[in-house]
Specification:
This protein is of the alpha/beta class. The chain is 36% helix and 18% strand. It has a single domain, classed as Alpha/Beta hydrolase fold, catalytic domain (Rossmann fold). The protein is globular, with a radius of gyration of 16 Å.
Amino acid sequence: MIIYLHGFRSAPASIKAQSLKHHMEERGLGHAFWCEQLPASPQAAIALVEAQLARCRAQGIDATLVGSSLGGYYATWLAERHDLRAALVNPAIVAPLELGAYVGEQTNMYTGETFRFTETHIAELRALEVPAITRPERYWLLVETGDEVLDYRHAVAKYAGARHTVLEGGDHSFTRWTDYLDDLIRFAGLAPAA
């Protein structure tokens, strides 16, 4: 199963989440895609994903995390805690610092809903920091050098030893996402249905 974790102020309706979902459905793998709206609270977001991981374990289903931006920060913590594979797309590396400027009222880019992002949320992010990854072979980093939000070089350094796809240009949305959907399915160990 692919567990997709969207970014800050994003949603399951994001372009990346929807294109991966549709791509998997077209290949008979729709049942193996999970993406829910992550709460603003990092602690609550992790709890939601861990509940899904527990359901997967109970059913004997292998899970692979795919995290975009803040979702990549979450995916790293979850991969370390649960020994999972994780594909990270323009991931946030030091989310407590990067999101500090967003404390206050925020609007979800896809749902239009407003929410408060607080200092408590920043503290919750700090509690999820992974100073250094273990078993880099479990990670696949996908970054574009033109990311206007996060410096891709920080991710390249943090995930040293992992599989890297570093593409020139692009932006924080990861403009060449659809070129890698089949590779993501293979990375997750999911063979397309015949």
